[in-house]
Design brief:
One of its GO terms (molecular function) is kinase activity. This protein has 441 residues and is α+β, with helices and mostly antiparallel strands. It contains 13 helices and seven strands. The protein has a five-stranded mixed β-sheet, sandwiched between helices. A two-stranded antiparallel sheet has the order 2-7. A hairpin with a 5-residue loop joins strand 5 and strand 6. The longest helix is centred in the middle third of the chain and has 85 residues.
Length: 441
């Protein structure tokens, strides 16, 4: 309870509170400014009316005998404001008794009854509050009857009207209080929902980042380390000259992995795409990962969003790494085609193939194809895997290209050499590559 609030009303089992109680209840974060103003106005009105009633005595025109009980009443009422009380009955009884004493000494204290009506309505059960207001009204009428001029209709109507106004005002502000509480509840629910949504978004972002890093590590560092292991094993059984070539290749692979690791820290573009456009980067990856593989470029290359280029590069790296490790293929072909509204990428090999959906025989969990599908699906594209034991494998991806894509500028590398090198190298390889292009489309 705040220091400017009335004592908390006593709770009696089975006794409902009069609806005006919330208007004078302790201030809280949910309280409307108008309700707080009403509560302060009731306290202020009590002291103002008490001072007006005691004014004649202070001026010497009325008996000074009313001053001591008036001072005591002011102190007791102020004590109830400052100190909270779970059972305000004794405090309210003391305030009422002192007021009745003053009313008996001077009928001018009749005006103090109006703020007392709100005290009764706030601090007492309904079945007691209304009779208390009626009794206080009767006391005021009786005091006015003993005043000069006797009892008149105005002296009866005035106190009764004041009591009715007090009750109706209390009901009105009780409705405002209920509306305020309802509005505050809605605000609290919205804030709670907002916090839950923010937490869910943070969690979704954290999981998405974990998946992104898992794909990046699998498609770069893990594949590079696997290549280094294969090169090291090949060097063990090769001639000295071939072993040195294998070790040099392992060194280049390790350097590339180091660059990728540093890129993770800086969150920048993959080094292969920093050094060359996408077709050239794919050609280099093809030649380096599977020596003798054919690379083919169809259509006029256009600038793609960086996330699209990264996804196609990673897909090629993963697919070729699988060919190098598992396929035992004689021919491998990589084809990228820039078509109207989409770009397609096919990776074909004539190796041992596999049954799509079957995991490794040793029961290990794999991430390759799952990561490929996630990358392409995130771009709104599709990924198709066609394979069967002994019949080779085709991995075909198609990614939509937005209207913002544009042909490469004249300053950018001319892709014609790529086509010429692919044509020269594809003896026997163009057919499978073309077939995979059709599968992607």
């Amino acid at each position: 309870m705040s220091r400017t609030s009335l004592p908390a009303p006593e709770t009696a089992p089975g006794h409902a509170r009069v609806p005006v109680r919330p208007a004078l209840a302790a201030g809280s974060g949910a309280e409307m400014p108008s309700l707080r103003l009403v509560r302060l106005a009731v306290h202020g009105a009590f002291y103002v009316l008490l001072a007006i009633a005691a004014g004649p005595a202070l001026a010497g025109t009325a008996p000074v005998a009313v001053l001591p009980p008036a001072a005591v009443l002011a102190a007791v009422h102020g004590l109830g404001i400052v100190r909270s009380a779970r059972r305000p009955g004794p405090w309210l009884a003391a305030v009422t008794a002192l007021w009745l004493l003053l009313l008996a000494l001077d009928h001018g204290f009749s005006y103090v009854a109006f703020p007392l009506f709100f005290l009764f309505l706030h601090a007492m059960p309904v079945r007691w509050a209304h009779p208390a207001v009626a009794a206080a009204t009767a006391a005021v009428v009786a005091a006015q009857a003993g005043a000069p001029g006797g009892l008149t209709a105005a002296k009866v109507i005035g106190p009764v009207a004041g009591a009715v106004v007090a009750i109706l005002t209390g009901y009105g502000y009780a409705a405002l209080y209920r509306e305020s509480r309802k509005r505050q509840q809605l605000i609290d629910d919205l804030l709670h929902t907002r916090d839950e949504l923010a937490a869910a978004q943070r969690e979704a972002g954290r999981l998405a980042e974990r998946q992104r890093l898992a794909r990046e590590i699998h498609d770069t560092l893990a594949q590079g380390l696997s290549s280094i292991v294969l090169l090291a094993r090949a060097a063990e059984t090769a001639s000295p000259e071939a072993a040195r070539a294998r070790m040099r290749e392992a060194g280049r692979t390790a350097a590339d992995n180091l660059a990728e690791a540093r890129r993770f820290v800086r969150a920048l573009t993959p080094p292969a795409l920093e050094e060359a456009p996408l077709p050239e980067a794919l050609r280099r990856v093809t030649e380096r990962t599977v020596p003798g593989a054919v690379f083919r470029l169809d259509g006029d290359p256009c600038a793609l969003p960086m996330e699209t280029e990264v996804a196609l590069l990673r897909l090629t790296q993963e697919a070729l790494a699988n060919v190098a490790r598992h396929a035992h293929a004689e021919r491998t072909a990589v084809t990228i085609a820039f078509l109207d509204g989409q770009v397609t990428l096919d990776v074909y090999d004539d190796g041992i193939g596999f049954t799509p959906g079957d995991g490794p025989a040793d029961g290990r969990r794999t991430f390759g194809l799952h990561g490929m599908r996630e990358r392409i699906a995130a771009l709104g594209g599709t990924l198709t895997v066609e394979s069967a034991p002994g019949e080779g494998t085709v991995i075909a991806a198609a990614v939509p290209v937005g209207p913002g894509s544009r042909p490469r500028d004249a300053a950018e590398p001319d892709p014609a050499p790529l086509r010429r090198s692919a044509t020269a190298a594809q003896s026997g390889g163009a057919g499978p590559a073309a077939g995979t292009k059709g599968a992607a489309a």
